TrEMBL record:
GO terms for biological process: intracellular potassium ion homeostasis; intracellular sodium ion homeostasis; potassium ion import across plasma membrane; proton transmembrane transport; sodium ion export across plasma membrane. Keywords: ATP-binding, Cell membrane, Membrane, Nucleotide-binding, Translocase, Transmembrane, Transmembrane helix. It is a multi-pass membrane protein. Belongs to the cation transport ATPase (P-type) (TC 3.A.3) family. Type IIA subfamily. The chain crosses the membrane at residues 77-95, 101-122, 262-282, 294-317, 714-737, 743-763, 784-808, 823-842, 854-879, 891-911. One of its GO terms (cellular component) is plasma membrane. GO terms for molecular function: ATP binding; ATP hydrolysis activity; P-type sodium:potassium-exchanging transporter activity. Gene3D superfamilies: Calcium-transporting ATPase, cytoplasmic domain N, Calcium-transporting ATPase, cytoplasmic transduction domain A, Calcium-transporting ATPase, transmembrane domain, HAD superfamily/HAD-like. This is Calcium-translocating P-type ATPase, PMCA-type.
Amino acid sequence: MTNGPHAELASDHLATAGEQERHWHTLPVEEVAGTLKTNLSSGLSNAEAVRRRARHGANTLTHSKGRSALSILASQFNSLIVGLLAVATGVAFALGDNIEAVAVLVVLVLNAVVGFLTEWSAEQSLTALQRQAVPTARVTRGGMDREIPAAELVPGDIVLLAAGSRVPADGRVVECVRLQVAEAALTGESLPVGKSVEPVLDDVAPLGDRLDMAYLGTAVTDGRGRLLVTATGMRTEVGRIGALIDEAGGRDTPLERKLAQLGHALIGVVLVLCAVIVLAGWLRGNDFVSMLKIGISLAIAAVPEGLPAVATMTLALGMQRMARMGALVRRLPAVETLGSTTVICTDKTGTLTRDEMTVCALQLGDRRIDVSGAGFALAGEFRENGRALDVHADQHLALALRVGVLCSDATLDRAGGSAAVLGDPTEGALLVAAVKARMGKDDLERESPRVGEVPFSSESKRMVTVHCSPGGPAVAYVKGGPSVVAEASTGLFTCEGVRPMTPEGRERVLAANEKLAGQAFRVLALAFKDLPAGYRDEDLTGGLVFVGLVGMIDPLREEAKAAIERCRRAGIRTVMITGDQEATAAEIGRQLGLDRDPQGRPLRTAHGRELAGLDDEGWRTAAAGVGVFARVSPEHKLRIVKALQAGGEVVAMTGDGVNDAPALKQADIGIAMGVKGTDVAKEAAAMVITDDNFATIVGAVEQGRVIYSNILRFVHYLFSCNLAEILVVFASLMVGWPLPLGALQILWLNMVTDVFPAMALALEPSNPDAMKRPPRNPREPLMTASFIGLIGWQGMLLTGVTLLAYFVGMRWYGAEGSGHRHASTLAFMTLALVQVFHAFNARSQRHSAFTARLFTNGWLWAAVAGCLLLQVAAVYTPFLQSVLHTVPLTAADWGLVMTCSLAPVGVVELVKFGRLASPPAAVTGRDPIIP
């Protein structure tokens, strides 16, 4: 072989990304070898291999690093609310208010610790991203076959492929014998693909149609061959997908965006409020430093310190519940995202289907025989018109199964009631069907041993095996494409004997084939021929006796259709994205109900080829009207997700293959399958379904909706309580009263009294209607106008009763000295208890607290009891009396406190009863935020 300038030219050719790398499949073998300057017999020399590796680098993939402990910890402080509290803490330290500062600082640290431990645990529970390249490869170099580390492969190497091996790099098939490669992880095609050395003369052929190419990370299931390496490392198709993952980046979840909006609003309100109060007090003659301390206290009162901690705990608890369901979430905010999902984009193979080919029907002449059982489970029966058949008494059916078993190279590894297929899964399906009829391959081969064969090829589209026949001539058994086998048949088997195959009979066979194919079956034809003594090879090509057709399919998961229907009732559209042929994909979509959207409008099936030339607007339009995408590439999947997002959808993407990874990362929430999913898919996803059960996603969606409703419950609760705190202080200052609450009392209310009921609200159980309403508007802010109004009037209600108790206390005990301390204790206790009881108001803005659901949340009752005990301790424990400046209360005091504290519950109940409260759903038309 010649090296030198030409070799460098070849290397430069390979270094060019994009279109040139995609055209290897269009070139004849000799031209590919000439371009790469390699010898098809002896391969590269060792010296040339070293030079090429120096130019191209190792045949390895550059993987993105997982989230480090430091980055996870830093992310806990990204919230603007946390930042605002941190600033307030720093100012408090500067002014010498160390107790207040330390108290807030403790809350911030606890929030960060909880969030960090939860997310770090999830990150550690996922397997680290593994290299896609196999550890070793058999290669021909310098005329010698040897095994080398796969990382040392270079363009121009000749790699030997055999059944059971993984393809170690992208390359052009230069020799093959029955070579079958499973490409589901890359293309989504559920069946192994038969390879050929003939070029594919379509420049833009999808990966699944490039029968003369094999790609890194795919697996050889049958046969053998030789591969001329055309691309290594990041220039492989898997490497290009890795680059797409980096390009996709990640998006903030809807909850993160809404909390950020809320943080911005809070900062503006608090800064303006504090500035007004400090300036007003100073202008009225108060000491500026004292007013600044009051301003800091009001800032602390205005910001719900418990919000970050309760939000983190809510998401963490939801994350744990999802983990028990089989859904492992890697980032806390992603837990809530599922609740706002409007579209689920899902792969077909292994997600909606079992990824186990199954014989479901046989067409034997005019007879249609159905086969029960799904996947590789060995139980099942054969039925004709609903009547169970005795296979051994049915000569035609027994012969069809016999042909399918003997004309196969696959074997079954049986364990209990199911089997694992070793070899081609299509042949495995034939073997499983035979086992259902108690016909084992070993027994049949002992009875009729194989003595010859003609392997399947893409040219002949059939496989032939020759077997000894007990007491008779040798028999050829044939399986292959229906049209090919029917054309080669001169006889037609029936239970009455062999009849001539007439043109009309051949047309009936092809019509039956079309009917089965239209039902998404993969169809094989079966035939046999009694061979003469001393038969020749040409005797195997014609004169066959046609036995029948076998229809097989990768069956739908039993729970998939019900799960999709549940999504439909919840207003969620499911879109299937697959590498399958358009007709197959369309039929499966029809069976799953993907041909209509949740509103009943028709959706169509689109082929990847028709999408290739679309601009961004064309993609957005197409994505809005399609229920099934067929024959799509990884770039298509990514653009589909982006187009849906551009249309305002919140997109969840499910998948298990390398080809799904870029879209998984781009989606609002990517969901990878844990059992059959590749490591690349898991690394790109925000959530991993550990049981590969599509129905688990629906449960996770429901949990996401529950979590969002609970977040709004405690936002409603915390903000109305904090509004009451700040209005009590602000109103007293404006009317010239002494301040009713001190800074430590405000902190006690924010971080002790408020937090426990809020956490209990975060544990509200699911509402039965959670999955019967459409998704909320993803563009709707967390704080809608009606929600703000709800918080506002209820916060003022709590303020009014607190000021009433304070006013009465000052009338009873005076406004100075120990009398003011007594009045302040009344205000403190009233505000604390009214907030505790207000938790029952916050459970629902539509339904009365005194319904059958009153006792469904035991955590809330425990929180109420705990807070009452803490408040009693605050006024009767000497230590807390000195810290919080409280005094013991009399019976009359308790009567005043309880009357004022319970009054708002009655008022809110009357409002609910009169239907005067207008829920946000009435404004938006979407689901109520607090059902």
